[in-house]
Amino acid sequence: MQYPAQVQTALELTDLIGRRPTPADRLMAQHFKARRYVGSSDKAVIADLVYDIQRWRGKYAWALDHLGHTETARGLVLVALVQQGTNPENIFTGAQHQPDKLTQAERQLVAKLNALRWALAPAWAAQSCPAWLLPQFGAAYGDDMQAVLTGLNQRANTDVRVNTRVTDRATLQAQWQAEGLAATTTPYSPWGLRLAGRQPLYQHPSFAAGAFEVQDEAPQLAALLAAPQPGQWVVDYCAGGGGKTLALAMQMGNTGQLFATDVNHYRLEEVKPRLKRAGVQNAQLQCLTGPADPWHKRLLKRAEVVVVDAPCSGSGTWRRNPDAKWKLTADRLGELQQMQADILASAARLVKPGGRLVYATCSLLPAENGAQVERFLATHPDFTLQPWRSTPGAAALGEAALAALPTTPDLTLRPDLHGCDGFYVGVLTNNI
Questions:
Q1: Which of 240, 245, 248, 186 is CA-nearest to residue 218?
Q2: CATH topology of domain 217-430
Q3: How many alpha carbons lie under 13 Å from residue 402 in its C-beta half-sphere?
Q4: Which end of the chain, N or C, is less packed with Cβ atoms under 10 Å?
Q5: Which helix (H) or strand (E) holds 184?
Q6: Rounded alpha-carbon distances, angstroms, from residue 260 to 230, 279, 295, 331
Q7: What are phi and psi of 177, to 5 degrees?
Q8: How far, CA to CA in Å, does 382 sit from each of 370, 373, 429?
Q9: Are the CB atoms for 368 and 338 separated by under 8 Å?
Q10: What kind and span of H or E run contains 214?
Q11: Beta carbons of 306 and 235 less than 8 angstroms apart
């Protein structure tokens, strides 16, 4: 149940998200940081409504247009409330800190929404997928397209990766169980625990102790398949916030050399406290200026493992970042594909003979995944695609997990089939 003041805040945030390129989660974090008086329960209700609007924005926008109304934040909120069975008259009261009273036109809109035949919505609207992207999903998944998009429109659970350098999964699960936190083991990752819905875990004492990191199961598997060994030289080429850096470090046991690189200095700075909390001592942070950065000469053909979690559309994360699909454009997707090709070629220079180049994206678009790998292999005959099941890390998954995962040479994870983010992993071996 929403209260008028909560809806007003959601309305303001919806308007802000529509006008700014900044991701919704960051805008909300900034908003609440400046309003510390907002309680956690209010934040949860507001976030649920905001994300619902972003998740179904295509469907809601179609309804407004179909009924002759311009898409506005206020209109989207009205559609969302009607869809939830809430009478907007009880919310739009005009009182202090509450939405202005409904206009006559808005009352008519609400009446039309209550009588609307949603079955008339075109496929892109019904699945709330940008119309220009729908053909790509159709070409990629055929009869499974609806299942894929339905999976992407579900709310994500909260997955964590247990830091086995601090504790083990069974111990942390039992501890949480005693505290009333019902966590289940993830079906594939041997390090993962899953809690239903969004969970505020960053204030938990075990987080401060470095016992876990919030991380979806899919990237956990990417780090597992990279299979870095103690004493090796390993590069996390697009480290970003450092999630996979920490997973790689855990497997290396604080030995060898782990380089976390990125072109964004500020993102690397955010990695530092995470490394300290997890007890990582073998990682070096390196900000790169580009493919010609002199740093490459030091690592030229010296790394046993190079992981490239490339910048991408993020289409596989729409469950938790639904606003991203409306901010993506065809031009931006083209730019990302060229960026992926350039990064992959640059990272390949660091892989020693016999070493592994692990290419990963949080995308479900083949143009960013298998097609990108094929493009790379066509110009790099010294590399081959290694079946992911034959990698050293695959054995750690166990027989049950292996039986439930794809048998293709590269690995594509889908929310509708695997319960995690959409994700792609291709393991490339340097044979020269």
A1: 186
A2: Rossmann fold (3.40.50)
A3: 14
A4: N
A5: strand 184-185
A6: 16, 15, 12, 29
A7: -60, -40
A8: 18, 13, 8
A9: no
A10: strand 212-214
A11: yes
Q: Where in the chain is CATH 3.30.70.1170?
A: 158-213
Low-confidence ranges of the chain (pLDDT < 50): none
Largest separation between any pair of C-alpha atoms in the chain:
73
Rounded to whole angstroms, the Cα distance separating 110 from 116 reads: 10
Return residue ranges of the chain for CATH 3.40.50.150: 217-430
pTM higher than the cut 0.90: yes
Tokens standing for 177? 């169980």
Homologous superfamily of the 158-213 domain (CATH):
Sun protein; domain 3 (3.30.70.1170)
Residue 394 pLDDT:
95
DSSP reduced 3-state for 361? strand
238 is a catalytic site residue: no
Report DSSP state, residue 405.
Answer: S
CB within 8 Å of 3: residues ≥ 6 apart: 45, 91
Pull the structure tokens for residue 387. 């079946």
- Residue position matching structure tokens 């097609």: 371
CA–CA dist 416, 432 (Å, integer)? 39
In the block, tokens 């169980």 appear at 177
pLDDT digits (tens, 9 = 90+) for 78-135: 999 999 999 999 999 999 889 999 999 999 999 999 999 999 999 999 999 999 999 9
**CA–CA separation, 28 and 50 (whole Å):** 9
Q: How many Å apart are CA 165 and CA 75, to the nearest integer?
A: 50
The one catalytic residue among 238, 312, 362, 420: 362
Please report, to the nearest 10 degrees, the dihedral formed by the alpha carbons of residues 140, 143, 144, 150 taken in order.
110
